[in-house]
Amino acid sequence: MEIMFFRIALVAYFVSTAGYIISLFVGRVRVAKVSMWVFSLAFALHTVYIAIQWMGAASTPTANIYGSLSFVAWAVSGAYLAFQTKTKTRVLGVFVSPAVLVMMIAASAGLMDGVSLPSALRGPWVPVHVVLLLTGGALFALACLAGTMYLLQDNLIKSKKVRGFSGLLPSLRDLDRINHICIIWGFPLLTLGIIAGSIWARTVWGSSWHWDPKQIFTAISWVIYATLVHQRMIIGWKGKKAALLSIIAFAGLLFAFIGVNVFFVTIHNF
Amino acid sequence: MTLDCLIAGVILQDAEKMSIVLLGINHRSAPLSIREKLAISYGEEEKALGELKNIPHVREVMYLSTCNRVEALVNMKPTDTVVEELKASITSRGNLSPEEMGKCLYVYRDEDAVRHLFRVASSLDSMIMGEPQILGQVKEAYRLCVGQKTSGVILNKLLHHAFSVAKRVRTETAIANNAVSVSFAAVKLAKKIFGTLDRKKVLLVGAGEMAQLAARHLMDNGVDEIIFTNRTYENAVKLANDFHGLPVEIELLEEKLGDVDIVISSTGSPDCIISGEMVTMALRRRKNRLMFLIDVAVPRDIDPAAGKIDNVYLYNIDDLQRVVDENLENRLNEAEKAESIINEEVARFSEWFAALEVVPTIVDLKNKTEDIVKREMKRSHSWMKNLGGEERENIDILVNSIVNKILHDPVVGLKKESRDGEADSYVAVVKKLFKLK
Fold first, then answer.
1. What's the structural domain count of chain B?
2. B30 and B114 co-located in one domain
3. How close A111 gets to chain B, by Cα (Å)?
C-alpha cells in the first residue's frame, strides 16, 4: 500500500519537473510557483511513503541501492525546499526537480514491498550509518549543483554574456551561500556516517578498515571535503575555487557510492 | 520672414557681414593633460570672457568649460586674424606649443559651428552619449555670458535654438536613455553578483559624470555607504557632501580597496591607478569576498589584469555599453534620428541667419518706398482735400498695395538668394539701383 504513495509522488515529481521546465520557456514566475507547490506535495507523499516503510517490520527504506536512491531523492527534495523558503532561489528547482525525478525513476525499477536483509545488515548501526551518509550525500549533491551553477554564472559574467541564460541563474552570492551551507552541514553528517559505519564494521567484520575500494574512495572524498571546509572556514575561500572543489569532491563521493560497485570488487556490496 | 528675424535685422542694420565661429578642444581632440591646462577654474570664467570680448571685431562671445571640453562660441567679423587671436587667447593659459595647439584645437565656422553647438547641447558629442549634465553646463555658460553682456541678438537666438534642439532630441529619440541605462546596467550586474545591494560599500574614484550617475542608482538600490576619493581632495569632499558619503585622500585608495564591494573609477588619469596587484591584496584582506570593479574612465583606470582574478568582476565602459546595446542597429537608428533632427534645425537656423544679411536692405527698400509714398501723398494733398474721408482712405490703400505688389518679387528674390548664399551681389545691385545707403 505504501507503493501507492511512492507512485503518486513519482507522478507529482514528474508534473513539477515539467512545470519547472515550462517556466523556463514561458518566463512566468507563476508557473514556477505552481511547480514548487506540486514539488512540495510530491515531497510530502514521498515522506509518508518513507515513514510507512520505516515503521514496517524488518525493512529499512535504505536496504538496497533502489531504496537508497529514493531516500537520497527525498533528502535532496527536503534540503531544496528548506533553501527555497530561505533564499528565494526558485530557479534551483529547475535543476533539482529533474534530478530527483531521475533518481525516483531509477528507484522505482527495484521497488519491492520489503526485502530480507543479509545478516551483515541487521543491526542498530546500519540505518544510522546509511541515513547519515545519504542525507550528507544529498546535501553534497545540492552543493555540487549550486557549485556548477556558480561556475556557469561566474563564467557568463566574466565573459560579459550577461543577457539570456545568466538571468535565469541566481546571483553568485546566493549560489555561494547555498554551496557553503550544504558543505558545512553535509560534512558532519558524512563524518558521523563514516564513524557509524566503521563501528558496525568492527562488529561484523572484526576491524573498521579493510582497504576496500568503497572505503578508500569515501575516505578520499572525506579528505577533500575536510579540506574544503577548512579552506572555507579558516582561510576564507569563496566563490570559484570552493565551487570547483565541491564538484570534484562530489564526483569522488558519487564514485564511492555507485562507481565502485561497477568497477571494483568490494565487500561493501549489498 | 519671422518677426524676430525682422527685429534682429533692424537692430543689426548697420552691421557688416557676420560669421559664427566655434573653436575649442574636447575629449576626442585632446588628452586630459591638455584639457586640464586649458580648463579654467571656477570664478575665472568672467575674466576669460572679458579677454575674448576685447579682441577687435568680436561682437558676441560665450565660453564653455567642462571637464571634457573647452569651447568658445563667437559672433565676429569673418577675418582670419580674429580666429588666430581667439586661438591665442584660449591657449595662452595652457602654455601650449603651437604644434600641440594645432593638433587638438578645432575651428568650426558658420553652419558647422551651429551644428557642433547643437550636437554638444543635445549630448551627442559627449563621452557618454546622452548624458544629461552637458545641457545644464551649456545653459550655465550662456547665463554667464548674458550676465556679462557678451551675448547679443545672434547668440541669444542661437543658444535658445540650441536648447530647443536638445529638448527635441531628448523627447524624440531614445539617446537620452542610453546614459541612464549604462548605469542601470551597472546596478543590474551588481545584483547578479551580490544578490542584494543592502549593506554593500561603494568606492568612487574620481568625479566623472557617469560615475556619479551610477553611484546615484546604486544608492537608490540599497547601497548605504559610499566613499569618495579624488586627486583633488576638495572635489571628494564636495561630492561626499552631495551624496552624504565619506571623503578620503587618494593616498588611502589602496587601503580602502579592501573595505569595499564595488569600485567605480572615473579619473582622467592617463595611467592605470588600480593595479592587478592592488586588487589581489585587497581581495586577500577581505577574505575573497566578491568584488565588482566598474571602470568608466577613458583611458582606463583599472588594470585589465584585475578582471582575470578569481572572484573579481571588472567591467569597463565598453563592456557596460555592450550590455546595454540590446541591438546595435537600434542604437545607431537613434543616433541617426538625432543627427537628422540636428541637420533639420541647423538648416532652419541658417535660413534665419542668412536672411539677416538681406534684412537691412529689405528694410531700407521698404522705408524708401514708404517715404516716396508719403511725399507724393503730401504733394497731392491740395486736390485730395476735396474728396471724402472714405475715398481718401481708398486711395491710400490702393497706393500702398501697388507699392507692395511691386516690391514683393524683389523681396522674395532677395530672401531666396540669401538661402542659397548668393545674397551679396544681389544686395549690392538692389542698393545701387534703388540708391540705398
1. 3
2. yes
3. 42
A59 interfaces chain B, CB cutoff of 8 Å: no
**Band of pLDDT at residue B343, cut at 50, 70 and 90:** very high
Phi-psi domain of A114 (left: phi exceeds 0; alpha: psi -120 through 50; beta: other)? left
Q: Which of B324, B346, B370 is the last residue of a domain?
A: B324
Q: Is B292 on the interface with A (CB under 8 A)?
A: no
Residues linked to residue B64 through DSSP beta bridges, in sequence order: B71
Task: Provide the domain limits for residue B38.
Answer: 3-173+333-354
Residues B225 and B124 grouped into a single domain = no
Contacts of A173 (CB under 8 A, 6+ apart): B193, B194, B195, B290
Q: Which of A23, A160, A183, A21 is nearest to A101 (CA)?
A: A21
User: Residues A15-35: what's their mean pLDDT?
Assistant: 77
Question: Which CATH number goes with the domain that contains B340?
Answer: 3.30.460.30
B311:A240 CB<8 A? yes
For residues B229 and B338, state if they share a domain: no
How many residue pairs bridge chain A and chain B with CB atoms within 8 Å of each other? 49
User: Of A75, A85, A71, whose CA–CA distance to A37 is shortest?
Assistant: A85
CB contact under 8 A, B322 and A160: yes
Q: Is the ipTM of this complex over 0.85?
A: no
Q: Is the pTM of this model over 0.80?
A: no
Residues B93 and B227 occupy one common structural domain: no
Taking residues B404-420, what's their average pLDDT? 84
For A150, nearest residue in chain B (alpha carbons): B193
